[in-house]
Amino acid sequence: MRTYLMGVLSSVILVPAALFGFLVLGFTPIHSDAKPSSLETAAMRFIVQASVRRHAVEFPPMPAGNEQAIIAGGKLYMQGCAGCHGELGKPFQEDRANFPPAPQLTSVGTQYSQAEVAWIIKHGIRMTSMSAYGRFYSADKLLEIATFVKSGNNLSRTALDLIRARDP
Amino acid sequence: MKNFLFGLLTGLVILFLAVAGYLATGLADVRADAPIPAWTARLAYFAIHASVRRSAPRQDNPLPATEETLVAGGRLYLNDCVGCHGEPGKPPSDFGATFYPPAPQFPSSGTAYDEAQAFWVAKHGIRRTGMSAQEFSYADKDLWAVAAFIRRFPKLSPELLSKIHPSTGGTNVPESPK
Lengths: 168, 178
Hints:
The complex is a heterodimer.
Chain A: H1 2-24, H2 38-55, H3 67-80, H4 82-85, H5 105-108, H6 114-123, H7 139-151, H8 157-164
Helix pairs in contact in A: 3-7, 3-8, 6-7
Chain B: H1 2-24, H2 38-55, H3 67-80, H4 82-85, H5 106-109, H6 115-124, H7 140-151, H8 158-164
């Protein structure tokens, strides 16, 4: 029994110690111009999703957006998000510069709900290139962008034209 | 001995289940708008510095440290880096502070990296931060010029700084990158 417990203790100490050594000695790969492995991608997606589901409760669940909110959100998206998350109406282009890559929302959409998207824009995702925009956008604007993102890969021609049109 | 190995295995399983359970139930906070705990920041920055030292080339800047190089690097910095890393003579970047970890503010705090390391970071980016790889936007020569410029913060002379500003005077810090 005693040797068994010694064994348990050893791995509980040795594994974190090995990890610590790996980090401190500079073995962590850090260059962001690489692609995360599919295992890492899947694990990260799962972990982030679990956390967002648990924490994103401040915005009420909303019905699918109305046309007006989509267009207002689309204009904001073009100014503030398209640089990393994909231009409107352009073909899919993989983000090679960020690690993890920024999801190309206009091509692949999102698995998050509208309220969750608004929450993510407000608070950002740590240890990614997604910064927190809460201090730059009001709650209404966050929701407009989220409304747009939820429908951004499935827009009518007229909606696209209205988003691209310059304000008078 | 056999018991010890069984114990070792049990320990591994316990560790795995604890970490996986913590992550899978969403207890890990992913919000970027929270301060980084001091010990996490210290460990993370130490690990990043150690990795950069290991990966970056050990060489001098191939460009001469002339005013021309610094002005070219400074213009590029003003064009594409200030949004997150701060503009000389201005308060720290609001936008840079919204990343987790936050973007270092070179004008006030300079950098601990040498020029080859700064070049390497600019070219390849830093994983799991907001720092993206610039090799897709800039040639090596441009990034070496930027490295020479950044390395000289926070002691750049006002004369040099006035030369990199466009004649219109001042630039607008963008609300979002690019």
